[in-house]
## 1
Amino acid sequence: MKMTGADMLVKSIKDEGVEIMFGYPGGVLLHFYDSLFNSGIKHVLTRHEQAAAHAADGYARATGRVGVCMATSGPGATNLVTGIATAQMDSVPLVAFTGQVPTNMIGGDAFQEADIIGITRPITKHSYLLQKADDIPRVVQEAFHLAGTGRPGPVVIDLPKDVLVEEGKYSFRENAEIRGYKPKLDGHPGQIKKVLSELKKSSRPVIYAGGGVVISEATEEIVAFAEKHQIPTTTTLLGLGGFPGNHPLHLGMLGMHGTYQANMTIHESDLILAIGARFDDRVTGNVEKFAPNARIVHIDIDPSAISKNIEVHVPVVGDVKRVMTVLNEMDKDAKTTHNAIRGKWLDRVNAWGKERPLTYDREGPTIKPQYVVEKLSELTPDDAIITTEVGQNQMWVAQFYRFNKPRTLLSSGGLGTMGYGFPAAMGAQFAYPDRLVVDVAGDGSIQMNIQELATVAQHNLPVKIVVLNNCFLGMVRQWQELFFQRRYSSTCLISNPDFVKVAEAFGVKGIRIENKVDVESGLAEAIEHPGPVLVDCMVDREEGVYPMVPAGAASSEMIFGPEKKEEKKLKAVK
Amino acid sequence: MRHTISVTVENRFGVLSRVAGLFSGRGFNIESLCVGATVDPEVSRMTIVTRGDDRITEQVTKQLRKLVDVIKVADLTETSFVDREILLAKISATEKNKAEILRINEIFRGRIVDISPNTYTFEITGDEGKIDAFMKLIRPFGVKEIVRSGKIAVSREM
Ligand SMILES: Cc1ncc(C[n+]2csc(CCOP(=O)(O)OP(=O)(O)O)c2C)c(N)n1
């Protein structure tokens, strides 16, 4: 049966099981949007294409399914770019459809033409420029397969207008075999064995778990392994929730703003089991000084992640869950290593935890942002989904919110995209209408996609936004404080709008919190409100994020705040 | 160190830009790159000569393998292989030096592919060393134009 390209596209998207997509129409997409009307696929009109990409990303991270977004040619497509790059850096499965001028006009600088395939080539897992309607089913199938399998990532499909208008024949293939694409899922048994022999030789092991643990849903397997061998475990920002935050073996996040305990444990370890992590520079600090005495085991699905930044001694390429399952199986009859040696190591690890726990001034009269996050953590259930913007707000969430379940923290780690959190929260909320979804924001970041208040108002989507309002681009200000003599060049946001009024103008409830005593009740009120809420929380303006590993330092060389500068370069206590 | 990498790819548009972009985007250097058809019309072969230490080359090959349109990657440098390049050289010739130029060409088993009243154009095939040696000898006579193809390579059967 002959169908138009637009109808075929809608059918193909449906065949992939897509229930919701986020997008913004335009001239070249008129036929598609017409076919979409009454198709049964829910389409959410965001108020900016960037938000459509982030919403699809938030949906994908919260569910593990492929997120779908769409934008028209030219400026619509280029507005998606930040969202696509964000997804690429954090391995988020995303299919982004872009409109394109008709094939016979491509390359002629036509109205609203942009070479989006060229523009997004370095920030996608793969991309397609459709040539004819007949190709639509195959390309859509391949795109979803590529986006969602192996190391996930964004795939762009560029849709010239004439391809959507012309007629073609719909055909469905049982599987989307791609000759050049065979992700290696099963780890090499010989390599997996080596992991166990490394562990046997080690007296000071640590697990460093990254976003790959969450993506491959390997929490159970890793907890079992860590428990059996009593291995202290730290996670990256994207790994938070991948190992329960309330587990006694959990050390919190490592890296630039990681806990003292996690960074010291990594630094002093003799074996690092890196699982679904990629040795990002925010984690390692100065690679020359990273974990000087450690052997490194690296389990990851992406062969190119192995030995990219840090030389790895035992690589295991494969899906984390599968590898860990085999590892646990091989290990079944082996004795646990929970012996005197391990006890001694854990004593040291625990001592670091007691020596310098995460802390802040709990007594003072001002609202400390950490206090707000801590209260939020107390008031929200384990299955609440927390998104963040970027900057101090993000780091305080990582430090002071306790993530006990995977896929409950959605945050732009690799790209560090301000403006991510709010639209990502919308995506998560559409996926789980009954769960609590909160975006913890900075007053700078929230203004990057604040127009989405219109979207949540339209759908009465009960997303909560908590703005930690310091009237600064706080994280940049903190660096200026530490390294540029407090010359606050272009970081002061004293002319912020009245966020409560802004929210109200969009038809969203606004709450302002100005006193410490009102924090708990204000947050509780927001949580209980059935619709969307923006909470504008006036926090201590010059509070900093600590500990901090300054650029170029080893992870053991943390600073703990400006008033404690004399303690700079605090070394390991033996 | 120099590496000769043989890459089989889907014969589709955009593949070359993906491969080239991978190199430029990661700061890897390409010394030469040749693309041509294979017996299978849907598949092309690229021969890429790149320079870098072992770690960089390992990254290059891993990143190439990651491209969806790339079917196979082989670093020929690790094996035994044959490589060839073609040189087209347009050389100024005078009555006086003509004989000498032709003699050099003959020694290198070159072919004359074009003649004009005061130029010869030679075609020389060989490995890089041979081409370099020819260039060195012919240069003093006055090179009008030189075009090198870049290297193609194939592994030896053991
Ligand atoms: C799109 C984008 N632009 C610029 C930056 C650089 N940047 C990182 S953190 C930050 C400040 C964020 O300020 P705010 O949202 O108020 O959060 P705070 O740090 O105060 O919590 C800036 C400008 C960025 N990460 N993303």
## 2
Amino acid sequence: MSAKAPVRVKTLTIDGREVGAREDQTILEVATENGIFIPTLCDLPGLSTVGACRLCLVEVKGARGLLPACVTRVAEGMEVAVNSERLDRYRRGILELLFAERNHVCSVCVVNGHCDLQSLALRLGMTHVHFPYQYPRLPVDASHERFVVDHNRCILCARCVRVCDEIEGAHTWDIMSRGVDCRVITDLAQPWGKSESCTGCGKCVQVCPTGALSEKGKSVAEMSKRRQFLPYLTLMREGRR
Amino acid sequence: MSDKVGQALPPAKPEPEKVRMATVWLDGCSGCHMSLLDTDERLIELAQRVTVVWGPLVDPKEFPKDVDVTLVEGAISSEEDLHRIKMVRARTKLLISLGDCAVTGNVPAMRNQFGPDAVLRRAYLENTALDPQIPREIVPPLLSAVRPVHEVVPVDVFIPGCPPSADLIFSVLSELVEGKAVNPAAKFG
Ligand code: SF4
Ligand code: SF4
Ligand code: SF4
Ligand code: FES
């Protein structure tokens, strides 16, 4: 063990409450440690952070615009607000855009009742979608022996990309194209079943927050995700370094 | 986006007058109506305060003029749905989207990825052995895309769920007749 520089402690306030944090922590980590809820979708402890979904936006006094809590480091004297009418409005708006831009039919979805997106919509009081639904025509790839990717349900959170790269070490997934054409792809946009890099470990399926990745043979509402493995694997990996 | 947090009926009229309620069945499976009936004996309780002036089980052929609250089940799929919802909206004070088909388009809107012709072909040509033909008279012309109700007319209250539970429907209705503002929370699906 090499001698480490002493960890510095920062004090900040979240919704007026004074909290202490290590200087390398994010606002989200500190809030979670203190039992303060900030909605998230792309963040998953054990994976790197990407700030892809913007649901964790918070107000930081003095900052221009809103900041994503999952990728914003704490600072001394920071004044953070995680609950406000404005944030509620933005968060609901982001959720509504996610629902409007693909085809989410919860009643017949494989993860109905076990979905991070669906339960967040309930928790944040999204009663309906104010934006016109786009109804894009999207494929379902069931070429893999054991898994299915349904692009109708994908929110492009990149959890699959990160777990496959950072934990499994296979880097089968990537994200292709821009804007509404964005898609998750396996290998070089080959059918998943043809992928030579995929080991079939299933980690991507388990971390996917929605019904976009599921196990074959599961019918409506039958798929729930098992994520207990993630902290252990991360610990093991960090211990090795 | 509207920032309404809840909707209430206009102040109640002097006591004895009952709330005039209607229910409409558009492109849905009737499950939401079943769920409404599932409130069972509580319906009797409600009947003290509410008269059902129109619905799939009520006689009059024409939608009445002066309705306090209408529950709409189903998405807007055909020209007839479109015509009916506009009339219903014009004659209703408080319009409620009941269930996922009305609120999101749900299963009926799954055809939007393929278009109405593909649906008709599948239903009436590809799956029929005997004299396959697409009906032109009994089936009302389908719209090019199925839409949730609020994309077509303004909606005041949303009750998600497929179907919404009987408890949820009952609590919304009882709060409404008590003159409370309602903004029900329930999951989609
Ligand atoms: S992925 Fe979640 S939000 Fe989307 S249809 Fe399935 S249950 Fe609903
Ligand atoms: S099953 Fe494992 S190896 Fe294959 S894509 Fe998913 S995470 Fe990567
Ligand atoms: S497939 Fe799942 S995990 Fe991957 S980006 Fe889409 S929603 Fe996220
Ligand atoms: S959780 Fe922070 S951007 Fe997704």
## 3
Amino acid sequence: MYDFEFERPATIADAVAALGDEDAQALGGGQTLIPTLKQRLAMPGKLVSLTAIREIRGVCEDDEGHLCIGGGTTHAVVAREAADRFPGLASLAARIGDPAVRNRGTIGGSLANNDPSACYPAAALAANATVVTDRRTIVADDYFQGMFTTALDDGEIIAEVRFPVPEASNYQKFIQPASRFALVGVFVAKFADGVRVAVTGASESGVFRWSKAEAALSRNFTPDALSGLTVPADGMIGDLHGSPEYRAHLIGVLTKRAVSAAT
Amino acid sequence: MTQVSMTVNGQSVSGEIEGRTLLVEFLREGLGLTGTHVGCDTSQCGACVVHIDGAPVKACSIFAAEADGAEVTTIEGMAAPDGTLSPVQQGFRDHHGLQCGFCTPGMVMTATALLKENPKPTVTEVREYLEGNICRCTGYHNIVKAVLAASGQEMPAVAAE
Ligand SMILES: Cc1cc2nc3c(=O)[nH]c(=O)nc-3n(C[C@H](O)[C@H](O)[C@H](O)COP(=O)(O)OP(=O)(O)OC[C@H]3O[C@@H](n4cnc5c(N)ncnc54)[C@H](O)[C@@H]3O)c2cc1C
Ligand code: FES
Ligand code: FES
């Protein structure tokens, strides 16, 4: 691997200062970034590891009943510690990659990367989570801005992700067997004031909300409410794993499955 | 260069590393513990799995500096000092759970972590937990058998699909 500077600060403030250098990049669990560095698809001059910062790790609840997850919390910890409060989210975390990936990969890394096939973006968008950074808060509807693109500025750190907890939720992941990412994934979240449906893995513009399904499910939260609703194949990803039409079809199937699993 | 210290298989070790030194390089080249293998080098195959503070991690996808102060266990730490194999190692031996053996250190480390979390896993749970460990030789069947044997269970007759 090429040479770079390496820092491992213990506080958010020190990490933000270290990331002030133009050529610096944050390192979370490294499960995406380290392979990327090896291929030299990214070549920062300085890596700032976030793994020694205790204040961005762990799962807790705030006064308004939100589930607050530190940006440096691993998938394995979310799978364990969110299970009682938000089982839909815990089950999503438990199905990311494999056990070793889950012991390193973090929610902050996943949301910062915003891979179009990643799982967490679907949960964050469906539950209307708030991304709390070292400098501001960003609601999910403003945060995701297309494949691998987010509202984060250079050097901005995800300190926490704050999830409103739905009354019922479910994540359906149709696995792409080689990568173990989602070929298509659908997260359905039912709140007192309506239903949100977020789709990952399918669109060329990254994670998105399926608003027609949301309207139908907000009136009637049953799989039947989705009868006749389809997603146009236009703008869906087409690759050797599946055509745009196939992905569009899967969205309908998975949304129905998610609703029946959540009810 | 910076100094890193950790406990590896119960012994305190330290060494000079660069920021870019991967944990697997420190183990293999720094400490001569070549039991931990590198297959894909991109966190796909699991040949490099070691335990960090008891949890399985791919040593090709973590920098040595990140393991500073940690307790690391590698395949060399699995057998007892007198050479008695661990139950998982014995299971692999008894049930022909390996052919070329390249994937075996990672398989043993991952399976050992599974049995610590879940002492009596089902066949499906064994297969799911080993999802990140790829074997080109065995077709997995005898690996699953070995892990079940290590948990004191027998392979159900119908599990061969
Ligand atoms: C074999 C394998 C299978 C996988 N399967 C899945 C899957 O099924 N579903 C899925 O969703 N993902 C999957 N992943 C990806 C995994 O979840 C990664 O852990 C995750 O995408 C990146 O998180 P990380 O903590 O490892 O981040 P890193 O790799 O360290 O960093 C990724 C990016 O995020 C930035 N970053 C990291 N932390 C922060 C932070 N706190 N604030 C701001 N920026 C930050 C980094 O600068 C970098 O740009 C898989 C990975 C592997 C290797
Ligand atoms: S060598 Fe580490 S996962 Fe393949
Ligand atoms: S025994 Fe050869 S790769 Fe598994």
